[in-house]
UniProtKB/TrEMBL annotation:
Domain of life the protein comes from: Bacteria
Protein name: MetA-pathway of phenol degradation
PROSITE patterns reported for this sequence: PROKAR_LIPOPROTEIN
Length: 268
């Protein structure tokens, strides 16, 4: 009887140790990409429950992307990107996440790219607002060979709503270079959008949109903007687990053309 009671605790310890070893191994094995195509996700307004921790692996592979170095940034085609995200909930309205960006590829593209810190505040569910609302602020660094800008800031408002089996989420994000090639420019408008339908109790299918349009009021020509569309699937096998998979198409010449992604998360 005692062994049965201890079994979940032992499994939790073993699983946690696996993640600790994995994260330590990544940091030691890789050497240190912009966040572009590293964490491909439209945020929901909900945050991690108080005193809980979410560990996520964001994996994606660029089937067709840039093939030559541009402005000192390595090409993306046939590069595998892996991001470790760890988020802890402190109370009903505040959480903080940390990211470790990594790349696997030929010609010097195997590297630990950088890290970001992301505090986020949210309107508690107990206030019963008609829509979910939260605000994320993300900042950090990345290596110059993977990004034109080595230090960046992102401000991401999040608004979402569930109507029956349909789910809608809008992230009208604004990004700013703090150090690097674009440091002298203002904020860049980067809207993200997600619409999906829970076709089954354990699965939903929908569309995710990711854009990088440029400074508001001074957008460059559409061909120079980035617009990307994903066919995405979410699976709800367990409240403790998160699984999202998708296939994306670039809609402009400045966007990577074909990308596959997978997000796997576990709550503790």
């Amino acid at each position: 009887m005692l062994g049965r009671k201890l079994l979940p605790f032992v499994e939790y310890i073993c699983f946690t140790m696996k993640w600790v070893v994995l994260i330590w191994g990544l940091c030691m094995w890789f050497s240190c990409l912009a966040q572009d195509n590293y964490e491909i996700q439209v945020y929901g307004s909900d945050i991690v429950e108080p005193h809980h921790t979410m560990v996520e692996l964001h994996s994606n592979y660029t089937l067709e992307g840039s093939t030559q170095e541009e402005n000192g940034v390595l090409p993306t085609e046939h590069a595998f990107h892996e991001t470790v995200e760890i988020t802890h909930g402190f109370n009903e309205w505040f959480e903080t996440g940390v990211y470790f960006f990594n790349s696997l590829g030929s010609d010097g593209r195997t590297a630990y790219v950088g890290s970001h810190l992301r505090p986020r505040v949210a309107v508690p569910e107990r206030l019963h607002w008609p829509v979910g609302v939260s605000l994320s602020m993300e900042f950090g660094f990345q290596k110059r060979s993977f990004s034109e800008d080595t230090w960046t800031l992102e401000i991401r408002p999040i608004v979402d709503k569930t109507l029956g089996t349909w789910y809608f989420s809008l992230n009208p994000s604004f990004e700013k270079s703090l150090k690097g090639l674009n440091a002298g420019q203002g904020f860049e408008f980067s809207p993200n959008l997600k619409i999906d339908d829970a076709i089954l109790k354990w699965a939903a299918v929908g569309i995710e949109y990711y854009g990088a349009m440029g400074p508001p009021g001074d957008f460059p020509p559409v061909d120079e903007q980035q617009h990307q569309l994903f066919l995405a699937f979410d699976f709800f096998f367990s409240p403790e687990w998160e699984l999202n998979a998708g296939y994306g198409w670039g809609l402009t010449p400045s966007t990577d053309r074909d990308i596959v992604k997978l997000i796997l998360g576990r709550r503790f």
